Automatic annotation (TrEMBL):
The chain crosses the membrane at residues 193-214, 226-248. Keywords: Flavoprotein, FMN, Membrane, Transmembrane, Transmembrane helix. It comes from Bombilactobacillus apium. The keyword Cell membrane does not apply. One of its GO terms (molecular function) is oxidoreductase activity. Pfam families: FMN_red (PF03358). This is Flavodoxin family protein. Residues 1-90 form the NADPH-dependent FMN reductase-like domain. Coiled coil: none annotated. Gene3D superfamilies: 3.40.50.360.
Amino acid sequence: MKILGILGSQSQTGITAQMLAQVLDHVSPGVEVERVFLEDYQIHPAGVKEDNDLDELVAKLAASDVWVWAAPTYWRGISGIMKKFLDCLRPKLVYIKANGDTIPGDFKNKHYLTLTNCYASTTENWLTGVTDETFKTVDRVMTAAGVIKVGEIVCPNTLKLEQLPLKKQQLCAHYGPKISHQERKDDSTMKRYLQLFVMIAVMAFLTMGIQQLLRNLMPWWNFWLNYVSFTLIFFVLLAVILHFVTFVKHRRR
């Protein structure tokens, strides 16, 4: 088992580097760890320049079971050197068909963890998603390559911050043992169907309960009132739940 940490920042001692160090320093005993500081390498698309370390980095990725991507968020996006590295990796991570579509390449079913940070406050990041595009960039590339996501960590409010906050240190350290044990990609289809069934059952129960209260208040209740009220109440409950799941629950802090 080997874990590769890829640091795509300008400093080897900054907050991004500290986040990566906390993860890698707490992996399970016996797990091999290697760190890569992208600024130390010449990274160019294959065949563009002779002085190119891309193949060396690809070999390191191939020899590792888990990748930890660590890059700060600049201007609501991933750092330039990390983006350049991911761009150069495209023909290595996926097979490109004649029509331009891609299919996962040789790295399929490896695992990855993403780390980032930003100057924005916790509240601003939670409300506006300052770091969202950084995670989405990595997720898009890894999904195309068939690499399985283990998790993500964000540390906001890093302006003038020299030491990673204790809470974030603990969170990063928590992921060390977690990524030390490669997991199979479970087929969660049945789980999702079960969650959908429970959600619909709860909404139907609440809707019928509200309708019963309305019947007691409205003696002229009929089929069409029953139908319209059920549709409206069910829709409102569904909208609230979907809003919570897609906006509130998944906001990054």
